[in-house]
Amino acid sequence: MTIDHNVLPDIGRSDADTVLVVEAPVTAEIFDELERKPWPDGLISVSTYAATDGETALTYTQWAAGATGREFLSGLTGAEPVEYRLYRSGTRENPPVPGCVVVVSVEFDGPDPQRQRRWVDTVFDALAGETDPPPGGISGHFHVSTDGTKVLNYAEWTDEQAHRDALARSGQGTVGTSPGWQRVQAFPGVRNSGFRRHHLARSVSVAPSAEEVLDSPTAWVAEHIRAYVETDGESGHFYQGWPTLLLTTRGRKSGTLRRTALIYGQDADRYLLVGSNSGAPTHPAWYLNAVAHPEITVQVAGDTFTARARTATAEEKRLLWPRMASIFPLYDDYQAKADRDIPLVIIERHTGETP
What we know:
InterPro entries: Dimeric_a/b-barrel, F420H2_quin_Rdtase, Split_barrel_FMN-bd
Radius of gyration: 22 Å
Structural class: alpha+beta
Helix content: 25-40%
Number of helices: 9
Distance between the termini: 21 Å
Number of strands: 18
Strand content: 35-45%
Protein name: Nitroreductase family deazaflavin-dependent oxidoreductase
Organism: Lentzea miocenica
Order of helices and strands: EEHEEHEEHEEHHEEHEEEEEHEEHHE
Largest sheet: 9 strands, mixed
């Protein structure tokens, strides 16, 4: 069993069926045991978050279909968990690595699964009406409780202050200003609602079952990848003098994992890529995949890690492009002939993963 440590859970992972949440922490001693001992069948991840007000903690666990983890989790925390299923998610383009998780809790005056979903859909309508969305909002993952009475939104933000600023800007206790938020606030049957800001305290998760990874269909690139993987980068990390990494993305249409080799640069602990496609009029497939699915896997020499990819802003590109052109001068030629703005991509390793 492969375990990832202290990385925010992948809320939308396809093998997760139910989510058990409890407002109590899992102790460090129990986390140590989870890393040493076999897990109960179906457990995918355990994550504990500390509220920024210092008063409470929350534990979020993911389970595979058919798993029954309620007794296990209550035994770990001494509290009774609530069972949820993910209903609907939204993530902004080119999302940065989250610095704060805001958990929004809503309780209704009785069980009604259709009402739960209508409330979530009303929130999405309000978000769609925003002409100037809050800049610090990254994603919202809306879960509905299986008893039909609650909704939990696991919302990722850049930091605490960004969430405070969004609330202050609206002046009405919502993160947006569109008229649709009035319908959210007046939604019938809501008994109570509230939120808490959190930081990840500790987490462990099982790596997804191995999926087939398709390498580049270009023969010489596929051979480069093969040598890179087989030697942990001893052969292939430097290709004809250029530093290269292996990038694995999920196909935006097929959903298949696809791997290619690319020249890279560095900016402190961030990695830089250029979507040149040799100056062709269209973006390369790996870039389009990374925009659609920014969660990626990267191998640099012998170091393999998960990360998030985003397109550099115009100002970031202005500052970082010369660095990439100094590594591979043809990038300037490609940009001159391409009838498009060639993107520069910034790769940020997930918090908690160390080289």
